[in-house]
Amino acid sequence: MTTIVSAQHVNKVYKMGETQQHVLKNIELAIKEGEFIAIMGPSGSGKSTLLYAVSGMDQITSGRVLFQDKELTALTEEQLAALRLQTMGFIFQQSHLLKNLTIFDNIILAAYLAKIENRQTVNRRALELMKGMGIEELANHMITQVSGGQLQRAAICRALMNNPRMLFADEPTGALNTNAAIEVMDILADIHQSGTTIMLVTHDIKVAAKTERVLFMVDGQIVAEHTLGTYKKEQLKAREERLVGWLSQLGF
Amino acid sequence: MIGHMLKRDVLRNKTITFTLLTFITLSSLLMASAMSMVVDVWASVDRLFQQAKVPHFVQMHAGSIDQQRLDDFTKKQPLIQAQQTVEMLNIDQTTLFLKNRQQIDHNSVMDVSFVKQNQSFDFLLNLHNEKVEMASGEIGVPLYYMKKYDLHIGDQIWLATDEFEMAFTISTFIRDAQMNPSLVSSKRFVVNDMDWQMIKAHMGQSEYLLEFLLKDTAQLHEFEQMYQSMDLPQQGPTITYTLYKVLNAATEGLIAFVIMLISALLIFIALLCIRFIMMAALEEDAREIAVMKAIGIPRKQIQKLYLTKYIALAFTASTAGYVLALFISPLLTKNIALYMGVGKQSVWHYIIPCAGVFVIALLIIGYCQLILRKYQHISTVEALRTGHLTEKSSSKKGLLLHRSKKVNIHVFLGIKDIWARLNMYSVIGIVYMMCLFMMIVPVNFLYTIQSPSFITYMGAGHSQIRIDLQQTVDIEQRFLHMQETLRTDPDIVKYASFITSGYKVELQDGKYDSIHVETGDFSIFPLSYLKGKAPKQLGDIALSVLKAKELEKDIGDDIVLLINHQKHRLTISGIYQDMTNGGKTAKAYLDVPPTNILWYTVNVDMKQSIILDDKLEAYRDAFYPAKVTDVAHYLAQTFGTTIAQLQLVTKFAIVLALAIASLMTMMFMKMLLAKEATQIAIMRSLGFTVQILRLQYTIRIVCVVLLAIVSGMILAQTIGQVLLRQLGAIMGAPNIALLTHPYMSYLICPLLLLSIVLIAVWLSSKGLKQQKMLMKLGGE
């Protein structure tokens, strides 16, 4: 399998007045095409920063990030935007839909911008995706009229509209109740099954247990790595236990 | 704690605080300056009139005088304090040489007269408001000429005809309380008594000013009616103390009016601005407010926190405006100081502008309280949970992207946002509309007053040339000669002659008042009538607006004129606008030959192929001493000072409007970008580039500006017209039609506004690049 993302000697330093905060320290990371990877670690360990650094959403202080062999730091703002539009999808903890648009318009917006397919095809595809996530009846609702779980599913639909090569998810279940979180994770697992690479940040062992590989970060560094292998529903309990054991060894 | 919050708030919102501060300071500055102008005009006119001892009633008379009869009348009348007869020598302007001995000023519309200093009142003053005394060979020149020809003390002036020549040295400039304003078309030069006798022996025509000082000015009207009902000299117009005051104050008053108008607009914009800022600040601080409420801080205390900032801001800015006005006012009142001198400094000079500024500050604070009251029912729980006060927009569906088949998505998003937050965008829209209004209205005022057709508001039809023949010895002969020449002149397209006579009109109480009645063919150079039509058949009379108002008559009513001691009943056929002769005139179709003729007027239009200047020159030679004027020049000179000042105000208004538009845009954008930081971050994460987002903001603002431009134009046409009518009504022309300068109003001003706003949007959206996406999307 080819590497889709690789980070080499990545450092990120925040300057606040005279003090400096070294949030990513010499990170080395490679994610294979089709892989499902989770980043775990205590609050402030640099998990989200790493996710945004490797997706080109945030600039790094030093090092290199390669996405599909393109060096992100060398790209212009326009090229980065085009890359996000055509090959990446993002899911955030808060679903972050645009508040003036209906659920359906939110979903189709990026596809209309990309102009890869005509508007009719886009509309059809959006409806199919919504059907798949069980939210098709919410198409014309405004975002204040639906639940958090439904919003997050809409956000996933939006992220998938342009058939991204890779999904970046920052605590996608963080703001959801247990049932909604399970549903969202099952959807992500399905998406991965269909061949999309996923990198997600989470605190939740139940979530991480459905991924293939878990990285553990402390203080801006990846300190440990645990490979879980391909996810099968019936192995979930065992995978969770393995993870708990591994994490408790790490003091989490 | 309040001080700490204040400091933090100011530092956090530097641009916004600065903008608000600027607006309040500017509006206070303008208000204080305008108020100070009003006080100054008042004080200066008062002092000038006192020191010049301006007569209360003046009858101009172009015939002979029986002083004995006048003295008898004066003795018998208990109302009169003093009487004085002033003899003026009217000099043909072609015999007066200013600046150099060769150059004649043909285009002047002013009547030039030479006088001696008066003995008991109506003094001609120097620039220190002192009574001037001339030595032989010296001359005192009216300020109007000093300004127009840039004359200096020590310069030479010549009076010269073929047989006679006399040179004078300017020793002083004259402040003439009666004839200072350019609206008054006579100017008095002062010379030594001996020199005056010498001039009289060789040139000039005598005209008399019969001047009266009354014991009580309250009885002025009574005296005026009494004088006119007596058989006393009356060959010429009468002017009263009140009219002198109005004429002196008119020019500066107009400017003060326009400045106050701009100040009022600025206050309005400042209030919109405050509403805007307060709502944004409350929105931003919703969570903090909720926390304060949750820990039990009383509502009043929380309100005080917010109000303190605006009280501090309002008072700082208005004090700054007031202090600045102390420095700026002298510039604005320079003209007043020159023409009327500096009035007595009283405490009112400080109190009235201060009161104006104080009212502005109170208005602002009151408004803040009103806004805060609206927001006092913030739900603590809701604000703590969502961090928002209101989310009105989110339940409005409006336009749908997937149904808009071909619309560009950036245009769609722009319109959608405006639609969703109409309240917010309408605030900035109103500001743009006001800015355009502020630019167009003065431009059109100026255009109207400069237009040749403005003459119709002066009671005359629009013609190219106007010939005025005043009282002279053989006036009738000269008039006949003129008629003959014009009739045979092949260059003329059309001409019309009018004779103005001084008659008497019967009042309701049986007394008589004087009236200037013009007769002639009124159909050749038609005047647009406010009501009714021009006199067409025998027995028709048309009245000027102010005369009709004074006589309390309307069209269809009858009035009685006393002509040659005979009563003539006439029917009012129409009412027209006239700003000349105090705005009180009449036009009639009479079956009796005109008597008691005051002057003749002839209007002439030339063929297009004729060079107007040559023709004017030829007529001046042929019709001497009649005054031949190019109507365009006539207006320019009569309203010269007003036009110059209005030009200055217009430029100022345009610059100010553009400055306001750009400042408000930058502030609006800053707030918008801060408010929408999360939305922007979301869009960028979806793949929208910064350039595209800037384009979206530009589209939104352009939509708003375009709507504002259309409504601003409509507003300028409607409200602008109302304002002009208000102003015209005071001067005798209540129905001045506002003319629209097509290029300036419909093209240049809107384009200027649009460009400045675009630049401001582009500059302020530069900040988009610096915005950190992660902070807003929940990254660590």
TrEMBL record, chain A:
Locate the ABC transporter domain: which residues? 5-244
Cited Gene3D superfamilies:
P-loop containing nucleotide triphosphate hydrolases (3.40.50.300)
Among Pfam families, the record links this protein to: ABC_tran
Query: Which UniProt key words apply to this protein?
Result: ATP-binding, Nucleotide-binding, Transport
Q: Which domain of life is it from?
A: Bacteria
Does this entry carry the keyword Transport?
A: yes
Please name the GO terms that the record assigns under molecular function: ATP binding
Q: Does the keyword Coiled coil apply?
A: no
Protein known as = ABC transporter ATP-binding protein
From TrEMBL, chain B:
Q: Which InterPro entries match?
A: ABC3_permease_C, Membrane_comp_ABC_pdt
Q: Tell me what topology the record assigns in the membrane.
A: Multi-pass membrane protein
The UniProt record lists the ABC3 transporter permease C-terminal domain at 261-369, 652-769
Task: Decide whether keyword Cell membrane is in the record.
Answer: yes
Q: Does the keyword Transmembrane helix apply?
A: yes
The alphabetical list of record keywords is:
Cell membrane, Membrane, Transmembrane, Transmembrane helix
Q: Which domain of life is it from?
A: Bacteria
Q: Membrane spanning segments where?
A: 254-277, 310-328, 348-372, 425-447, 652-673, 701-723, 743-763
PANTHER family per UniProt: BLL1001 PROTEIN, MEMBRANE COMPONENT OF PREDICTED ABC SUPERFAMILY METABOLITE UPTAKE TRANSPORTER
**The protein, known as:** ABC transporter permease
Q: Which organism is it from?
A: Lysinibacillus piscis
